[in-house]
Each structure stands twice: as structure tokens, then as C-alpha cells.
Amino acid sequence: MRELGWPGAPAQKMNHLFPVLTALAYLLSFGLYVRFLSTGSKLTGRLGTVLLGLGLIAHYFALLERSRGSHTVPYHDLYGSMSLFGWLLAVTYLGLELYHRQRSVGAFVLPFILVFFLAAHLAPADRLPPPAVHGAIFALHVALSILAYAAFALSFVLSLIFLGEERLLRKHKVGDVVWRLPALELLAQMSQSSVLVGLVSIAIGTVLGFVWVDRLSSQYSFYDPKYVITLLVLALYALYFRLARTTAWRGARASKLCIFNFVIVVLSFTVVNLYVSHSHRYF
Amino acid sequence: MEIVLVGLNHRTAPVEVREKVSFTAEQAQRAGEELRARGILEETLVLSTCNRSEVYGVPPESSHECAPGLSTFLSEFHSVRADVLSVSLYHHYDQEAVRHLFRVAAGLDSMLLGEAEILGQVREAYRFAHERGATGPVLNRLFQGALEAGKRVRTETELGTRPMSVASAGVKLAERIFGKLNGHRALVVGAGTISEQVVAHLRDRGVAQLRVMNRSRDRAEDLAKQYDGRVTEWGEWDTALQSPDVVVSSVSAEEPVLRRDVVERAMAARGNRALFLMDLGVPRNIAPDVAELYNVYVYNTDDLSEVVQRNRSARESEIPKAQGIVDEHVAKFLSWQASVELVGLMDALRMKLREERASFLRARMEPMKHLTETDRAHVERLMDEMLEKLLLEPAERLRGERELRRKIQNVEALRDLFLSNREKP
């Protein structure tokens, strides 16, 4: 049992049932996706998807239970922020898998989901003061921002797979995995779909953030370096979206740009949030 | 209930014999009708592909006895000398016939291991026979089981997923880049046999637009006409390379016909849209340095042969898995067969015992004049009850037997011990 809450608050005990179920479901799903990639058994792939779905449900209840237990919101601390990121990454991936009917990249995405979920639990427990009540606009701003980061993370993974597969095809190393991975064009489309989800989310999320700041401008500073880097991320992904679809950059170059963009996202999520930003810490 | 199979295939008969013994749809129907009319078989199904001709049936009597009749029939039907045919024919009965068909449907008995077409051919042969009333409960169940097994092998193993010819490997590799080829465009350079093979594969995969370029325009037109394509003038590379996603080249040329500068210009014109080049010419038709260009994928004959070789090994490694599925379905069919036979056997046994009881009582009660009709009926009822009791326990035990082989052996033993040939169900 892990104690939750802020200094001075009555200690709450966290039930480990849902986190354990989540970890188990994600782990099994990962194993099944790997097996699907190595054997091509459709039944195994379907089971992988089912377990990912079950993991998502358990993960949702784990987040909900913790939020209720500690009277906070998931993004208020490092744990919640990372765990919510993992959950949204899983949601985005599952949506993409069902939309494109392609589950062979699951083996590459699940480790990221697992890492974020487990890292959140291994992170030292924060003892933060209870969050101020910011309202729905703020909650939506944060949720959409984290969803955008998750979608960008997914496009990063897909771009890595694209580069790997492209390299193998160019070198004529057509092994088992190449036959089971999605076609290069489909991978590019999946990456673009994911970036589109990220772009829409971050655009709406940013607008909502500005609306919220505008309402509370007397209380919060207008000038946060986070704004600049968020707009840069938005511009870079919009550029990727344009270049990958219509110009001579399509293919491996666009994938490399997507990877570069994600490096900027990581910088925004870590260095900028922790050391530069005034009002963004975990999102 | 027994199943008989007589046939020949690519392993047992040379093509000269196979082509003589193949059946057209009309012949398959006529053969089935004749076999049933002559009383050789009660249910019939003819499976005829380019590599095999097989007649499946359910005979009225023991299948072993009807096999020679079937061979003679085939010899007469196709006007092939019996001694020529007999060396090529194989006969399978019951379990072996079931196993053979399930292996055929799974692609395990094909010339090209795991080929996809055979399952469709089995399905079509079954549909054809079923619609004409040639099949009955046994063959219906048998072929439904075979189709089920074949479908499972296709979906649960990779026996048929990897291309096994250079032409199909090239087309499948193009799909690794573009996904499904419907909506994509192709250019075929050369109009020889190899080009034709690739064109057939491309059309099968739904290529939307096909262009043919050849030194001899007449041959290009023939090929284009055959596959609903259009002809492009020889040497007009700048125009020809602008739209296709896949280019297949197979012409005789001392020097490469596609040089780096030509492809480079084309790639610039098409905004670096990916281009898959399949070079099937020897000497090579595409300059090796074309492969260095961005978004250009070049595969020559050696590269594709290597892919095919690797796929062959991969397919072979799937055989045990496919065989496992076949075994599972064979066992399922035999279990059904055994349970049906058990019901038939018990009915036959009951009838025989009642006949025995009737003649026994007739003989023994004849002198007992003091017995009234009611007494006689009462005695008969009591004996019937006793017979039912006697039958019930072994029947239950047989029905509950979990091991299939034992179950079948016991059913056969019971039949052999208690019933004469005439009485066997």
C-alpha cells in the first residue's frame, strides 16, 4: 500500500488491484503482439488487442481511484502526468490500430506504454498541495496537450519503424518481420494520422490554454517560454504534415523530420517544463 | 459407411496421363451420374485440377470391393488403357481418404507447397457436386470439414503467405512499399514470357493502369490487349516513368536500358514518389547505381530468387503446424463418423437380437399350449427389456470412449463379432 496526498493531509492507502491488473494486461498484450509479429498468428494478434483494451480499462480505473483517493487530478504530479500520458498513448494506438486494421506495430508501441505506466509507479510519491480548482477549460487544455504528446510519441515510433523497414527493403534483407510489418505507405499514413490527431489536439489545447490565461490574466503571467516551444512544435508538425504528403520529402526524409520533431517535444516536456516554464510542470 | 478415393496427381502421373484423365465440368457431372446409376457409388464428387484428378465416393458395399470397379470405370470413361492407368492411380479408403483430402485442401499435397488456389478449387468442386445432388450426408460432412481445415491452415499458418516464384515475389515486394496495388499503376518493359507472368500477377493484384513498352510494337500491343493495358512508345522514358509506381523490365539488352540519369530525371518530375523497379533481365536492364536514388527500390533476378529461396524454407517450417491442424480436423471427422456408425450399429444389433428372440420364442413356446396370448406377449416384453438392458451398457461405454482410435476399433469389433456382412450398416 502506498500513501498518497499532500503534506498534512490524512494518509490515504492506495489499492494496488487496478495498477497490478493494468501492468499484467499490458505485459500480456506486449507478449502477444511480439508473438503475432514473429508467428503471424491472427488469433494471437486479436488476443493482444483484447488485452490492450482490458489494460486500458484497468488503467482508467487505476487513474480514477488514485485521483479520488488523493483528491487530485491525474496531471497534477509527475506520477499522474506520466500515467495519463501512457493511457492516452494506448488509446491513440488502439484507435489507430482499429482504423487502419493493422496490429503488427503493437509490439513496438506497447513497450512505451508499459515504460510510462511503470515509471509513473516507480517515481517517488509527490507530496504536493491540493490543486487549485481550475475548471473545465483548464482540464481540457491539459488533457488535450497530453493527448497531443501521446499522438506525437506514436508517430515517432511509427517513423522509426518506417526507417527500419525502408532500410531493410533497400538492402534486400527481406526477413520474416518485413513480411508482417505494414507496407511503407501505410506506415506513413498511420504516422500522418497520428500527427493529425496531435496537431488538432495541441491546437485546440493551446487555444483553450490562452483562453484560460486570458480569464485569469491578473493572476498568471502571459509570458511563459512554454508558449514559444508549443507554437514551435505545432509549426514543425504542420510542416511535417505538409512535406510528408505532397513534396519530394515524402518517405524517409519526412520520417526523419518526424523523429526530430519528437526530440523537440521531449525537450518541451522535460527541460522547458522543469527548468524554464513558470506555469507548466508536468504537461 | 465407408469412403473411397481413387485418383492420380502430379506425383503419380506424368502430364500426358494427367491431361487424359482430367474432367471438364460436364464430364465431372456425367461421371458422377454414371457411377451412381451403375451402383458403384451412392455419393460422388470429382475433383479435377491441372495437377490432380480424384473421385471421392461413398459405396453401397465395402469400399475395398468397389475400388477395382472405380479404376475400370475411369479407364473406360477416359478411354485410357487400364494397364497404363493402373500404375498412376492411388486408392485410399476411409481414414486415409479423409486425411488425403484434408491435406489437399490445406495445400500440403500441392506441387507448389501451400498454394492458394487449391482451396478454391476444392470449394468449387464441392459446390458443383452438391448443387447437382451428387453428394450426401457423408461427402457433405467430409468436404465441409476439409474446407474448414484448409481455411484454418490459410489463416493460422504462413504456409501460403509467402510468394514462391520470382514474378510473384516481385509483386509482393511492391506491396511491401505501396500496400494493396489496386489504384496503382505499372509499366512493363518487354513483352516476353516473363513479362507476361508478371503482368498476370499485377492484374491479379488489381493494378489500375497497365502500360506495356517493347521494341516490337506488335508484341507490346498483343500483351496490352490481352491484359487490358495500353502501349507506350519504346524509349520515351521521361513520359513513361512519370506515372507508374511499379516498373518491370525484362528485355534482352547488352547495356542497361534504364540509366541513373533517366530515373533521376523521372524522380524529380514525379516529386520523389516511391518507385519500385523489378529487373528481370539478364544482363541487367537497370543500371546498378539507380538503386542509390532516393525512394527508388531496385530488385533484380538474383535478389528475387534469394527472396523465393528464403520463403521456401519459411513455408517448409510451417508444415508441422499445418499438419497439426489437419490431424485435428481428421480426428473431428472420424469422431463424427464413429458416432454415426455407433448409432447405425446399435440399430442393426437391436434388430438382429429381436429377430433371434422372435425365432427362439417361437420354437420354445410352441409346446407350451397352456400359455395365453397375454402370457406370451408378457414374456416377449420381458425379453425385449432384457435385450435393451444388455445393449445399453456397452453402447453407453462406447459412446463415452474418449480415445478415438479405441472407439473406432471397438465399433468395428462389435460389428465383426455380431453381424454378418449382409447385416452391417
Name a few traits of the molecule.
heterodimer, A: 283 residues, mainly alpha, 2 domains, B: alpha/beta, Beta Polymerase, domain 2, Rossmann fold, six-stranded parallel sheet, four-stranded antiparallel sheet, 16 helices, 10 strands, 12% strand, elongated
List the helices and strands and how they pair.
The complex is a heterodimer of chains A (283) and B (425).
Chain A: E1 2-4, E2 12-14, H1 17-39, H2 42-69, H3 78-100, H4 106-122, H5 136-170, H6 176-180, H7 184-215, H8 225-246, H9 252-276
Antiparallel strand pairs in A: 1-2
Chain B: E1 4-9, H1 15-21, H2 25-37, E2 43-48, E3 52-58, H3 63-77, H4 82-86, E4 90-93, H5 94-106, H6 117-131, H7 137-156, H8 166-178, E5 185-189, H9 193-204, E6 209-213, H10 217-226, E7 230-232, H11 237-240, E8 246-249, H12 260-269, E9 275-279, E10 296-300, H13 301-316, H14 319-365, H15 373-400, H16 404-418
Parallel strand pairs in B: 5-6, 5-8, 6-7, 8-9, 9-10
Antiparallel strand pairs in B: 1-3, 1-4, 2-3
Helix pairs in contact in B: 5-7, 5-14, 6-7, 7-14, 8-9, 8-13, 14-15, 14-16
Give a quick rundown of the structure:
The complex is a heterodimer of chains A (283) and B (425). Chain A has 283 residues and is mostly helical.
